Amino acid sequence: MAASGAVFQESVKTPFIHMPRKRYELIDHTADLGLRIFGRDLPDLFEAAAFAVFDRITDIGALRGMERRVLEISGADWPDLMVNWLRELLYLWNGERRLIKQARILTIQEYHLSAEIRYDPFDPDLHRIEEEIKAVTYHQIAVEPAGSGWEARIIFDV
Amino acid sequence: MELRKIDDFRWELPQSGNMRVPGMVYASHKLLKGMEQDEALKQVANVATLPGIVKASLAMPDMHWGYGFPIGGVAAFDWETGVISPGGVGYDINCGVRLAATQLTASEIRPRLEDLINALYQSIPSGVGSTGQVKLSPSDEKSVLRHGSQWAVSRGFGEDADLARTEDNGCMTEAEAEAVSPRALERGRNQLGTLGSGNHFLEVGRVDEIYDPRIAEAFGLFVGQVTVLLHSGSRGLGYQVCDDFLASMAREVQKLGIQLPDRQLACAMIQSELGRKYFRAMACAANYAWANRQILLHHTRQAFLRVFEISPRDLAMNQIYDVCHNVAKKEIHRIDGKPRTLCVHRKGATRAFAPGHESLCVEYQKTGQPVLVPGDMGTASYVMVGTQKAMDETFGSTCHGAGRVLSRKAAKKQSRGRSINRELEDQGILVRWTGRSTLAEEMPDAYKDISEVIEVVHGAGISSKVARLRPMAVIKG
Question: pLDDT at position A7, please?
């Protein structure tokens, strides 16, 4: 499977330096949309997955994160937890028309997480929808340690 | 994967590993080449491992990569000992196609075509998350889920005659609204009567060629006739039903300790509480989709009447048929000479029942069921008819369309620097669209050659060509 050249980054603040870090890339496939997601650790991986999904959907920079909510998600294992996590976030978009600016993992353990998300109600005058992501699939899902961090492969229905 | 050639249209995927039955692929040599490049064949084999599968895991010539189940796949499971799988139906439950034909001819409407497509574009909400003119109260929504097209007709959206010319009369009677989650209900409340996005469309076309004059006449089709083809589904409600049950069945599979080659194949025994609940909820989504297409047809009729200022009698926009492309049905088929009750999953496949089947309306008893196979927006669509061979070989099923060859991303890449709109206009096809990248993603080059797909199912005898339709004007979501 060929990974495409497209790489999406955001600036991550560390105490000493500012450097861009790759959070995800597109996987090319007859699939509708495949993402490979990178995290330094598990919380970072789950946060990066939320970022990746909404970075595809809209310009996150245009969001203010006016509303917040705490989510509690469970799964049978890490891949299942990842699917359930993204399923919940996508419901906020597809079902409630909310665009997520930021997700912060508060706690994560085998196989449960709690997270705080910040979001805005969709306003067609303010927000541009770049890409539609309708559902997250279990197809060929992988969430695994990779190098010094974690990696996930996720395929979406668009 | 090694395929064994049976004839020019049939290839067997022999049973191996955990497969309970062999695979059977309907394809030409040319189409097969494309299939081998992606993982669709492996998916045919994966489906063959599921409990209770009967006879073979089938693939139609428009097959392409799906999640878990291939798109273009047909699989039947024993009603008592088999499984039901949301992934074997797909997210867009009862995504399907409806064809209506008018008494107008292409040359009559050509001068007003632009007015017509603009009027249609105005009256039919399309695009991502589009909402409709119909706002449902909770009790009305439950009524839609129970009664499908019949609800829409009872509210003045269409005619009784439309119902008989809809698969299952536009209503799966197994529907129980209590099986549908609050989230799915919420998503369904304001999307009825909307086209949606992606590959959904409304196409004004003309009958371009007749292959079977006797059956074409029985269907009410003639050369030059103006037709309307609608492609839409159950919108967010169907997606939510699929997603809800994928989640609960993934848990169920884990609990039962069933080993699946792909988690997207998550399933439950048909005779379990969860399996029965999914079937009832899926039937609700199927009914929602039928009501949706019924309302879309009504708006289409109204737009034609306004633009051409003629009476409904002169327009005579009669429904030819409405078929599901994504569904699971309880059906009786003869297996080894004996009738057996099965749960037939068609994911990107069309029912193609033979003449004389009891579920067909009087008009189609002698002809067999009309089968509607849309192509891409620049090429052609086909009307076919169901055959006895389909009953004997494919649980009364055939292909559903052209099938993608390019991913949406690849299509966008290939379209760079081109104006797909202009290219279509140069061919005399007017297009209106909503989504920013819809035209690029759905351009003709993204799909297989529909005529090649049609020749395979016709050649194999699992449906038979009746007429070809050419697009004149298209609305994409």
Answer: 61
